[in-house]
Amino acid sequence: MKKALIIVDVQNDFCEGGALAVPGANEIIPYINLLMEENEYDQIVLTQDWHPADHKSFASNNGKKVGESIILGGVPQFMWPDHCIQGTFGAEFHKDLNRDKVTHIIQKGKNTEIDAYSGFQDNNHFMKTGLDDFLKYHDIQLLEIVGLAMDYCVKFTCTDAVANGYVTCLHFNGTRAVNVKPDNGRDAIYEMIQKGVTILG
């Protein structure tokens, strides 16, 4: 069974000191590097939040406060601080992430009108990113997933992976939750398990 490692959004804005820093984010980078060093993956894919500056998920572009919600593209949208803007330092991958073995990069969130948490598609399931096509082309059947943040982009990437027919495993030590609400991370784990994601210690 061919397997791929999907590394979700390990970017400066989600790491320590970033515009949308996930608590403990930097702690997962050595773990991810070790996975790549100690395991043989047929493909290693990075996903990258890649927003235009006028993206509608940013509170600043809607006259809203961070934490409020609007309806965007027909689905509820949490209002985020400006983050991972195309071409900025914040959108770059963290310098400590070893990219020597990376075979492919998927950029998401490029459409101003709709956000994209999942590495597979946007939040209203209208536009695919090309990740599924890439994996199917390379006969990948098993996905191991790590990255940021567990309760948003990682969760939706995992559940979409299951929906697309992959055996899907999340490395618990390779992810952290942003926990906008204190229980978001815990709830994300329950939701992923219910949808068929295997959680690896």
UniProtKB/TrEMBL annotation:
Residues 4-197 form the Isochorismatase-like domain. The keyword Iron does not apply. SUPFAM superfamilies: Isochorismatase-like hydrolases. One of its GO terms (molecular function) is nicotinamidase activity. InterPro entries: Isochorismatase-like_dom, Isochorismatase-like_sf, Isochorismatase_Nicotinamidase. Pfam families: Isochorismatase. It comes from the Bacteria. Its EC number is 3.5.1.19. Pathway: Cofactor biosynthesis; nicotinate biosynthesis; nicotinate from nicotinamide: step 1/1. Keywords: Hydrolase, Metal-binding, Pyridine nucleotide biosynthesis. It is an enzyme of class 3 (hydrolase). Belongs to the isochorismatase family. This is nicotinamidase. It comes from Chryseobacterium paridis.
